[in-house]
Amino acid sequence: MLIKIITMPNTNPTDNSRTIDFFFDPVCPWAWITSRWVVNLTEMIDLSVNWKFISLKELNSNRTDLDYTDEYKKIHNLGRTLHRIIAGCSLKEGEAIRGKLYSIFGYKIHNEGKRDELFENSGIEKLLEENNFDPAFVNFADDSTLDQTIIDETKLALERAGKDLGTPVITFDPPEGYSFFGPVMSTIPKGEEALKLFNAIYTLASHRGFSELKREIREPRSFD
Q1: Cis bond leading into 174, ω under 30°?
Q2: pTM of the predicted model as reported, rounded to 2 decimal places
């Protein structure tokens, strides 16, 4: 059922079919929260989502500071591994599989808190099988030829939204529409709240002079 919130005639983004490009890294908790907001929206309004890659490993590839610890590098390497699997599967099965695989990887990592199980290919293989995907998809994890797709889509996100950004990046009405880093949220908006937020952000994204709105203080994260 299509839910509409009407504020002013012909200005509300939920009144029409909309498309966004959503650039994600599976290991980023902030991108995960925003992505679940987007998934909620697709169940309420006519919104199509193209799931695309933005790699934390690529974004941090030139860092040499001590804050970029081995633990961060390990986590970002996992992001690349999962990106490879999603990229390989999408070449074989079609683009629609991207969002489905992101959902099962993200839920395991963030909601269940079992990221460590995916550092080994055997853990990924088990997760794929449990969710009725071909466990042989895990073989894409070691296929470095898929990295160019990850790199290219990461570059696309930065070309659209600018450098020195993180995940997620969203393009509204791609490819001509504006792109932004975020929104970064600590909780997942649902129902009318989700729609109100989309209306507000879409309005900002439609204003060609708008660039940034930021707050450093954040509430504790919740994936529920």
Answers
A1: no
A2: 0.89
